[in-house]
From TrEMBL:
UniProt-listed GO biological process terms: negative regulation of transcription by RNA polymerase II; positive regulation of transcription by RNA polymerase II
Underlying gene: LOC100902188
Entry-linked InterPro entries: Prefoldin, Prefoldin_subunit_alpha, UXT
KW Coiled coil (keyword) present: yes
PANTHER family, sorted: MEDIATOR OF RNA POLYMERASE II TRANSCRIPTION SUBUNIT 10, PROTEIN UXT
One function term, GO molecular function aspect: transcription corepressor activity
Residue ranges crossing the lipid bilayer per the database entry: none
Name assigned to this protein: Protein UXT homolog
Source organism superkingdom: Eukaryota
Keywords from the UniProt entry: Coiled coil
Lineage: Eukaryota, Metazoa, Ecdysozoa, Arthropoda, Chelicerata
Organism: Galendromus occidentalis
Pfam families for the chain: Prefoldin (PF02996)
Gene3D superfamilies, per the entry: 1.10.287.370
Length: 156
């Protein structure tokens, strides 16, 4: 009986908790991607405003560009009418501002569905862990029957 309890403890701790950790990490990555696309959408909207407010009617824009590790430098963009957007998996596509905003909105919807799905999976694994812990406590004789009153200390 003790070997079964030990195997069950290992299953909960080594498999289910690890699976939950991986799901949390994946959800965090997807949330980070969604935040980056939202930031890109705001940047495109700012870019559209700056191009629209340009008195010369030109498409040239002067802006600060992140060159890595939060270091910025001034850059002159001769034609800001199109931008490159990461489609995923390292693939970039040149798009107009309107097309990029449309793409970002659709991408945000897909990412939100993925986040919701991962959240559901996290809840399922949490429930399995709780059921497993409950079963484990019953196997070890630490259970309290449901019809005992609330606030009853199982250790007394």
């Amino acid at each position: 009986m003790d070997s079964k309890i030990t195997k069950f403890e290992h299953f909960i701790n080594d498999f289910l908790r690890e699976q939950l950790r991986e799901l949390y990490e994946e959800r965090e990555k997807v949330s980070h991607q969604a935040a980056e696309y939202l930031q890109l959408q705001r940047a495109i909207q700012n870019l559209q405003r700056s191009v629209a407010s340009d008195e010369s009617g030109g498409k040239e824009v002067r802006m600060q560009v992140d060159i890595g590790c939060s270091f910025f430098c001034q850059a002159n963009v001769p034609d800001a009418s199109k931008i490159f957007v990461c489609l995923g998996m390292g693939i970039f596509c040149e798009m107009s501002h309107e097309d990029a905003v449309d793409f970002i909105e659709k991408k945000q919807q897909l990412l939100q569905k993925r986040i919701d799905h991962l959240s559901d999976q996290c809840a399922e694994v949490k429930a399995r862990i709780q059921i497993g812990l409950q079963a484990l406590s019953e196997l070890q004789g630490l259970s309290v029957s449901v019809d005992q009153g609330k606030g009853h200390d199982p250790g007394s």
